[in-house]
Amino acid sequence: MSTRMNSMSSNSSKTNDPKAGLYTQLGGYVGFDSISEQIQKKFLKRGFHLNIILVGESGMGKSTFVNTLFSAHLLDSKGRTSSAQPNRKTVNIEPVSHVLKENGVKLRLTIVDTPGYGDQVNNERCWEPIITYIKDQHGAYLKKELTATRDRFIEDTRIHLCLFFISPTGHSLKPIDILVLQKLVEVVNVVPVIAKSDCLTPAEKIAFKNRIKTEIEYHGINLYPYASPEDDDDDREINQAIRDFLPFAIVGSELLIDVDGAKVRGRKTRWGAINGNAFGALETYFNSGRP
Question: pTM value?
Answer without folding.
Answer: 0.76
